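Weekly sync, protein design subgroup
Attendees: M.S., D.O., the rotation student, P.L. (late)

Item 1: inverse folding check
M.S. brought a backbone from last month's batch and wanted to see whether the design step gives back something sensible before we order anything. D.O. pointed out we never logged the input encoding, so this time it goes straight into the notes. Structure tokens as presented (222 positions):
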């Protein structure tokens, strides 16, 4: 299996079980037909009777590990996750920090059941992302209606927002980009989508006093 790439999407397992709280990356399976979660290099610590605390390899600093260095034997449990090379490297990192990790067993069961697993996605959405979404919508409008239409003075505000982050005159009353969970397709549901394709629409808004575009990348949030 290929080593993980630093820019791949990382997710936390939120399904109760052995893997709860672990960080995984989504990678293609050996056949290249499906996506499977693969644990990244990390270690988990648990004081007896408490919950597991997972630390990625980059978080295994001396100050984060100090509380486990002189722990009374039998009071703390440790898990090391990752591919074979990752496992050896994490164990060595623990030893370098003064933690004598003694492997007492292993667990390699499936991350999920029946081909699925619950994951927790953390996303930071800021004005840079909103500007990118607005630009996608504006580019689509330009493609469909032409340059002369896109260069009308009616669109000065949105062009300045996209280019310079200048707030439009109407933005105090209505944000430029509003994230919603509702799908674009009428017979899609929030938890069930027909396709993972991208969707874009452009039309008059409900009050017919302006235009509204919809952008849904991978048919997720709109």
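Designed sequence read out in the meeting:
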């Amino acid at each position: 299996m290929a080593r993980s790439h630093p820019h791949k999407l990382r997710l936390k397992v939120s399904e109760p079980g052995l893997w709860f709280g672990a960080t995984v990356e989504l990678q293609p399976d050996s056949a290249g037909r499906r996506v499977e979660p693969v644990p990244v290099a990390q270690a988990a610590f648990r004081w007896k009777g408490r919950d597991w605390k997972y630390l990625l390899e980059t978080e295994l600093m001396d100050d984060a590990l100090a509380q486990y260095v002189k722990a009374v034997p039998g009071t703390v449990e440790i898990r090391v996750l990752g591919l074979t090379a990752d496992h050896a490297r994490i164990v060595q990192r623990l030893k370098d920090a003064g933690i004598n990790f003694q492997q007492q067993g292993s667990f390699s069961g499936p991350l999920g059941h029946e081909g699925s697993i619950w994951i927790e996605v953390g996303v930071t959405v800021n004005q840079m992302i909103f500007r990118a979404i607005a630009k996608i919508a504006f580019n689509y409008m330009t493609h469909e209606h032409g340059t002369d239409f896109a260069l009308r003075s009616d669109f000065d505000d949105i062009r300045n927002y996209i280019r310079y982050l200048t707030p439009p005159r109407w933005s105090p009353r209505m944000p430029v980009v509003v994230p919603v969970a509702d799908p674009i397709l009428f017979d899609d549901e929030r938890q069930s989508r027909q396709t993972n394709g991208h969707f874009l629409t452009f039309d008059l808004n409900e009050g017919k006093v302006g235009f509204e575009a919809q952008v849904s990348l991978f048919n997720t949030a709109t």
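Discussion: The chain has two domains: 10-120, 127-219. Residues 188 and 194 are 7 Å apart (CA to CA).
Action: P.L. to compare against the previous round before Friday.
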